[in-house]
Design brief:
CATH class: Alpha Beta
Order of helices and strands: EHEHEEHEEEEEEEHEHE
Structural class: alpha+beta
Radius of gyration: 23 Å
Helix content: 10-25%
Number of strands: 13
Distance between the termini: 79 Å
Strand content: 15-25%
CATH topology: Spore Coat Polysaccharide Biosynthesis Protein SpsA, Chain A
Amino acid sequence: MNEQIGAGEVPARASPRRPRVALCIPAYDGWRAEMGFDALRLAIHSAPLVDLTVAFTRGQDTSEARNYLVDQILHRDGAEAVDAILWIDADMMFPPDALIRLLLHRVPIVGADYRLRGQPFPRLGMRVDPDNPFGKYKFPSADDPKTGLDDAMAVLGFGLLLTRMRVYQHPEWQRPWFMRTWNPQARRVDNPTGFSTEDTNFCTMARLCGFKVCCDLDLSAEVSHIGQMTIPWNLGKTHEGRRDTETAELPGAGSGDPPA
């Protein structure tokens, strides 16, 4: 029997379902400790507002590992169905509220930009060239936006990127969503072989399917890419691998002050 609602009573409303997000961190042989710590902080911070789940595989090829993870997640249904994937690379650092901030943009593809690990440490992200949207990229310039959401990105790395599952359900875009390519027509001075990573190809295919690639510029300023450096014994020399017996002159040497 249906219960009668008395005069002046407000019918109970079902609470909205929280977004369900899968954390995916493709790796073969390990994570950086800093990333693991930040991932734990992110999970703790997000738990009151987001239903978190995980997907895992261990593979040498990052592209196929990503394909495998997406395929596994797409097969979850009912109460286990996933709304979005947060991709995290094993060598990233990020704030604990990163997932919440990305979700609040309510767009299919959004992430943070970050710098490459090799000098001169350029930004990884590229912007769309309006004169040739799928033929050329624009390097970031001083005239580009510095804060807010930039929805004119051509490429973003997957170091910290949120993708809604509807991206992978586009009828004209089936597996593989991730693949590496060598395209002679894409050769440039800085890329003489025309090689493209799975990040670049994914963003290009997503744009061809009508999705914008968006960058949270404020979050980007709080994200770091963990690299490694070769530290020579002789700190006064800059040549990596050089073995030299000369005395290194450190800051403050001879002045009585400790080196900085």
